[in-house]
């Protein structure tokens, strides 16, 4: 199994694969993007935040023969950062919904379970529709992007500006 296929499998299992290999990815970039959007009263699309710096770093350090490795590496690092952000925002949203005492927490739990299945199904379709040899990258990008969107949606439950 090549390294990119191993990464795709790790993403499928939601386990870190390459996180940390591309130390050019700065998870704080996500916080800055979200904070900037919040101060402007908007919800920005921050999914790709930090990717340019990560790719510059990864391309400078990687000397192998897989041209997709830097992108796979950075997508994985970005995805891991978004997953961590999602966990924190989801917990905050559960807490906020718990104050309503009307079954809102259970509805949110069910919605999150449904969303996880939706994300998997959608991103598997994206992988299957991608150009030959690019399916794993397309799926990884989809997982990252959908996770970032879910963070923004859940943030609205915590801070409904």
Automatic annotation (TrEMBL):
Boundaries of every Lysozyme inhibitor LprI-like N-terminal domain copy: 69-151
Protein name in UniProt: DUF1311 domain-containing protein
Superkingdom per UniProt: Bacteria
Keywords: Signal
Organism lineage string: Bacteria, Pseudomonadati, Pseudomonadota, Alphaproteobacteria, Rhodobacterales
Signal peptide extent: 1-19
InterPro entries the UniProt entry points to: LprI-like_N (IPR009739)
């Amino acid at each position: 199994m090549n390294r990119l296929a191993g990464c795709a499998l790790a993403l499928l299992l939601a386990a870190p694969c390459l996180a940390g290999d591309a130390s050019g990815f700065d998870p704080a970039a996500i916080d800055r993007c979200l904070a900037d959007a919040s101060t402007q009263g908007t919800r920005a699309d921050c999914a790709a935040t930090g990717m340019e710096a990560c790719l510059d770093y990864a391309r400078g350090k990687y000397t192998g023969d897989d041209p997709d490795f830097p992108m796979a590496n950075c997508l994985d690092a970005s995805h891991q950062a978004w997953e961590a952000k999602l966990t924190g925002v989801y917990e905050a949203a559960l807490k906020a919904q718990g104050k309503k005492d009307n079954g809102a927490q259970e509805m949110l739990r069910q919605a999150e379970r449904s969303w996880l299945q939706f994300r998997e199904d959608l991103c598997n379709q994206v992988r299957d529709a991608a150009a030959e040899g690019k399916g794993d990258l397309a799926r990884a990008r989809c997982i990252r992007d959908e996770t970032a969107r879910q963070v923004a949606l859940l943030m609205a439950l915590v801070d409904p500006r």
